[in-house]
Design goal:
single chain; about 140 residues
Length: about 140
Amino acid sequence: MTPLRNGTLIGLPLTQSGTGFLRRMLYDALAQQLEPRGCDLVEELRFDRRRKWRFDLAILPVKVAVEYQGGIWVRGKHVRGAGYLADLEKCLHAVAAGWTVVGVSYEQLRDRFDATLDLLVKAVEVKTGSKTNPATDRPGEGP
């Protein structure tokens, strides 16, 4: 895996510091963490055929979706009015269908990779009935 210092990526060549590289790193790390739990990762999973909506990354069978939120600082599609409203509608429909949707930014992956990975794994544990509570990180304590 890429070297980390305090959860931050270090020493990456410029060709390996972009969003695509971080997305691949997250996919690989999640796959390694979740395989023993019987979970599969699917990229670009279409969860609503009528609307043709897709998740950037879906964790099955627990129905946890990861949506990469890009363009935050350059007024990208996801943070402008129409795009933001469309994302909210998509998320609402996903939640109504039993999905847990988690938004992840480039900055979270770049600056806090380990912490972001740990929280995604805990989200899966919560959905599978694990006794670990991500809010307290202590066994047996519910919200």
